Here is the input.
Amino acid sequence: MKEINADEFQKEVLESGKVVLDFYSTECPPCEAVAPKFEGLAILYGNDIKFLKIYRQQNRDLAEQLGVKSSPTLLFFNNGEQVAESLSGGIKRSDIISNLDSMLSASRVNEIKADIKPTISDFDVLILGAGPGGLTAGLYLCQAKVNTVLIDIALPGGQVSTTHEVSNYPGFIEPQKGFMLSHNMSEQTKLCGTAYKVAVDVSMVDLDKKEVVIDEFETIRAKRIIIGTGTSPNLIGIPGEKEYKGKGISYCATCDAKYYGDKEVVVIGGGNSAVEEADFISKFASKITMVHQFDKFTANMTAQEKIFANPKITTLFEHEPRAIIKNGDKMEVEVENLKTSERTRLISDGIFIFIGMKPNVDLFKNKLELDSWGYIKTNEDMQTSVAGVYAVGDVISKKYRQITTAVADGTIAAISIAKELN
Ligand SMILES: Cc1cc2nc3c(=O)[nH]c(=O)nc-3n(C[C@H](O)[C@H](O)[C@H](O)COP(=O)(O)OP(=O)(O)OC[C@H]3O[C@@H](n4cnc5c(N)ncnc54)[C@H](O)[C@@H]3O)c2cc1C
Here is the structure.
């Protein structure tokens, strides 16, 4: 692997055969997360594909010329032509592999795969999920000198990193940007010394053996497991939703509201998230129509008052979406009036859906005792029905799901485990 600068781009990239180029920055957690994957793959694929790195801050003109807008970004070239999709943000090893494989013949890919050597590593505690619950457990365990690894399928931070403002986390007088709060939590845990394996594919979880396989070749064993995998947004399950997810339909206002400056959007839902996020989207969009199945919102009164006082927001109660259609640049939601069964179409530039969450338990749901909504049952020490397996945060069966409650669960699980192991 080699570091280049913009002057060498012509010779090292355009006049070479197969190349993958990593635009990285300093003080960039996703760049740090991708670096070991890039280095590992350079060893595997290095005889066939040249692996290069370029420091984005010092080569800005070239980055802009190539359309690189975030760090890290991986670009793939074959004989001077850009090939495969560029990758950026929380890049998974499997995504890089899929692009590299597409540049080689099937037989060569098979030969390379045969060289992959499975690895095994041992920790005292393995935490699945680096949201507030997992990060707090990681911090307490690390401070108790318990050898801990945090594993996440995305970058650390959990849902807080996609929440625009948090005004109810104690210790801060002013509301905090969600991504800064989660960044600080993550840095605190990382600096303490907890190991991180983030933006990985979790291929297998064996709760009895306390083993997790990531990226298909790396087995991580531990004496205890903490599950802190949180929740994911519910889908409505209507025609068009899967097709246009990320292409006109969003589940995250912090991530996407900024793209709707002076545009019209439809928000589906009427609970706290829908109402709070609609208010946030109104900072950008010119008009918002909120569609809700009941005759009033279920959000708290303060949030509702804000919505009713907001001139950009109109409400359509007792209506349910039935289909989503894309028509050129416009998104259309077909809604049904639940009283009259009459169907109409709402035309907008984008649709946001906030209709509640579901627990992320797919990898272990048959092994653990769950409540009737699918959340993991725990005792007061956060122990689950499987010996040595704990669960914390939004994924557990409880009444209130907040950052403070996730942090509290993480604390309890960590202290209980540290006492057990000592
Ligand atoms: C829009 C919105 C606004 C909110 N605003 C507030 C607020 O203002 N104040 C407040 O207190 N709370 C707020 N919340 C709730 C708060 O974000 C959650 O209660 C909190 O993040 C829960 O933390 P957690 O660690 O349990 O899970 P999460 O934050 O959900 O983190 C779970 C982590 O697990 C990872 N993961 C998932 N599956 C796997 C797997 N198989 N293997 C490994 N990792 C996995 C995910 O990538 C994620 O990083 C808000 C939530 C939303 C959706």
Notes: The CA atoms of residues 354 and 395 lie 18 Å apart. Residues 249-353 form a domain with the FAD/NAD(P)-binding domain fold (CATH 3.50.50.60). The chain has a mean pLDDT of 94. The chain has three domains: 2-114, 119-232+357-421, 249-353.
